[in-house]
């Protein structure tokens, strides 16, 4: 499995390298912890929702997965406001501590066999804590990383954050595959599923240590030095950024669906619908993430050179055309068709990661950036990201069509494509005219 701390872009100044690594490493911890639940959905369904109907148990498992997203906008408001008032570093340090603590507690929960219905209730409570924490992570980490980056290379530097997110998914999948192969299905369902959750605590302490060792971003420190820190970021966001938040919501929508279908649902699809062995499904997904990690910096660099809109148009248009063929290919059976289908999927969806990261920064002014970007980002993930595995499972169970999740993705991608075409401004420094830029750190007005 890859290192939890991805390499920084070539030529990164030493003064920037440590903050980039701190942001990426903390982000890795956050999404490894949050994603472990989805990687082990079929095992958790057996432990917490036993019964005669495997589909019902899986739906209940993905239902709790989705409920955690309902608290994410609350976390976005509370933690975003904190990030704009006291700083990115302090808020992100709190976030990683909350996530790792709640995730580790999942690893010591009693199962349904021990305490009955209390088990899923406790699981739900901890997932809500995870969701609250996640509401303040990605947007804050995006601001932290990109505010350190040179303006002309923001897309490339933002890829470090996207790489860490995908590396977290890869490590989670790889760990689940290794444990399943080493322990066997019986031991995994009995006690082995707890190991990835328990690893969250030491990983969280490492992430906390790295984040506390760096200064806050130059842009936030400049606000503090000039006494321009926003005292009411939520109010300022509401009065000045509603349209921009709506655009971010529409653009992030297909990124949210693609991310959680690939990471949290596709392994389950290959196991429960296609009929592949669990280890085969996990290794196929892990191999896909290796390719995705290699593609991310390429997409980030291309967004710097050609602009954010062309890359997002490519991704949304590509998913509209290729989602159904990708699922068709994966449903043939066997490792190589499964891998080929996922590879086709990420060849277009992979462009969304680094571009969304930098858009969250460039769409909003510095003094309310954490709050505004967190709200738009997490509302989209609430409505479409967290529900994606549940919707996919529901559609198959009610339509009987293996391709129904792909049709759903196609529709979502088409809607996002229209938003990109008619509403998304170009924000890349090389592509946007200087007159269109505000004086506030490159934020572009959405008219």
UniProtKB/TrEMBL annotation:
<keyword id="KW-0812">Transmembrane</keyword>
<feature type="transmembrane region" description="Helical">
    <location>
        <begin position="115"/>
        <end position="135"/>
    </location>
</feature>
<keyword id="KW-0769">Symport</keyword>
<feature type="transmembrane region" description="Helical">
    <location>
        <begin position="282"/>
        <end position="302"/>
    </location>
</feature>
<feature type="transmembrane region" description="Helical">
    <location>
        <begin position="156"/>
        <end position="179"/>
    </location>
</feature>
<dbReference type="InterPro" id="IPR005828">
    <property type="entry name" value="MFS_sugar_transport-like"/>
</dbReference>
<dbReference type="InterPro" id="IPR051084">
    <property type="entry name" value="H+-coupled_symporters"/>
</dbReference>
<feature type="transmembrane region" description="Helical">
    <location>
        <begin position="58"/>
        <end position="79"/>
    </location>
</feature>
<comment type="similarity">
    <text>Belongs to the major facilitator superfamily. Metabolite:H+ Symporter (MHS) family (TC 2.A.1.6) family.</text>
</comment>
<comment type="function">
    <text>May be a proton symporter involved in the uptake of osmolytes such as proline and glycine betaine.</text>
</comment>
<feature type="transmembrane region" description="Helical">
    <location>
        <begin position="342"/>
        <end position="364"/>
    </location>
</feature>
<dbReference type="GO" id="GO:0015293">
    <property type="term" value="F:symporter activity"/>
</dbReference>
<dbReference type="Pfam" id="PF00083">
    <property type="entry name" value="Sugar_tr"/>
</dbReference>
<dbReference type="InterPro" id="IPR020846">
    <property type="entry name" value="MFS_dom"/>
</dbReference>
<keyword id="KW-1133">Transmembrane helix</keyword>
<feature type="transmembrane region" description="Helical">
    <location>
        <begin position="314"/>
        <end position="336"/>
    </location>
</feature>
<feature type="transmembrane region" description="Helical">
    <location>
        <begin position="91"/>
        <end position="109"/>
    </location>
</feature>
<keyword id="KW-1003">Cell membrane</keyword>
<keyword id="KW-0813">Transport</keyword>
<dbReference type="GO" id="GO:0005886">
    <property type="term" value="C:plasma membrane"/>
</dbReference>
<feature type="transmembrane region" description="Helical">
    <location>
        <begin position="191"/>
        <end position="210"/>
    </location>
</feature>
<dbReference type="InterPro" id="IPR036259">
    <property type="entry name" value="MFS_trans_sf"/>
</dbReference>
<feature type="domain" description="Major facilitator superfamily (MFS) profile">
    <location>
        <begin position="19"/>
        <end position="428"/>
    </location>
</feature>
<dbReference type="Pfam" id="PF07690">
    <property type="entry name" value="MFS_1"/>
</dbReference>
<dbReference type="InterPro" id="IPR011701">
    <property type="entry name" value="MFS"/>
</dbReference>
<protein>
    <recommendedName>
        <fullName>Putative proline/betaine transporter</fullName>
    </recommendedName>
</protein>
<keyword id="KW-0472">Membrane</keyword>
<feature type="transmembrane region" description="Helical">
    <location>
        <begin position="244"/>
        <end position="262"/>
    </location>
</feature>
<dbReference type="InterPro" id="IPR005829">
    <property type="entry name" value="Sugar_transporter_CS"/>
</dbReference>
<feature type="transmembrane region" description="Helical">
    <location>
        <begin position="376"/>
        <end position="397"/>
    </location>
</feature>
<feature type="transmembrane region" description="Helical">
    <location>
        <begin position="403"/>
        <end position="424"/>
    </location>
</feature>
